[in-house]
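User:
I would dearly like some help making sense of a protein record. Take your time, and here it is.
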Amino acid sequence: MKSAPLAKLGLATAALLVGAASCVGCAGLSKSELETRLAGLAKNAPLAALGVERSSATADAEYAYIRIPARAGEDAPPIVFVHGTPSTLYNWSALLYEAADEPSLVGEGDIYLLEVAGHGIANSNLRAETFQDCADHVRGFLAALDLRGVTLVGHSYGGEFAWRAALDAPDRVARLVLMDSSGYRRPDDAWLPEEHKLREWPGAGFGYLLNSRERLRPALQLHFEAAISADQLEEMYLCCDNASNWQAMTELCRDENGTREVEIQRIAQPTLLVWGERDIAYPVETVARRFERDIRGSRLAVIEGAGHYPHEERIGAVRRALREFLRGAR
């Protein structure tokens, strides 16, 4: 269910959720209103100023994304950022634009922030029932814009979308960065309480009807060392308030079963693993170290004092790791 595992979210009882399923046509916050309100958050102002672009490869595929162009004379390979679940392309705003002790990556090459099908402001007709659906959406985006030599950066569930796309489109993906990524089958005792509910309760897909900032705050805070900001909470709340986004989160949580974990050893692209040392969703010792063993030649950067969202908590450290990795690949 990542990027924000909804542990201890405090959803009402299963009976209430099943009852909510009878609310036909209750869509929650519309996609158009969601887009307006996400763009209006102060933390997202630099990205909102660039504007969202949309490209359609076929009648059944639309790609919503923000492009940050390289400075004149810069020709570094393109970077494509893939967010987690439930989340949005705006989740990368702090990493790219917030002041930090390490310079931003902005300007060195074209940067693309993709909205994955079933998430954020993506067309609500684009279903995201499985990890492979989302990976195919990422791969389709690379093909639609004919991007090659790409560094693909994915966070949490977005990490799995990214490594699957890297396996399926090695001609387009040259380098891979996985941040606190999913990918392996988890034992029963590794699931967080609300993940169990999303996976097992019949009416869990209608949980958006009970969405509130008060329920969400403690769930999100579990995955941060520092207190979350009002904008961080609001962004996640807005994403969870849309019916199709919530239902995609439910479907993806149920699909998280390590179905392609045996293929991880086949990843041939140079790979950087960026992990929050205090991640309770995918702990360093049980998940990050396994990726490090399975992906030959990969490098693990453990970010001190960070949880599941190191790119929002320790911006300078994450930028430094990314810059060192990218410079070493040139």
User: Anything to note?
Assistant: The longest strand covers residues 61-68. Confidence is low (pLDDT under 50) at residues 3-25.
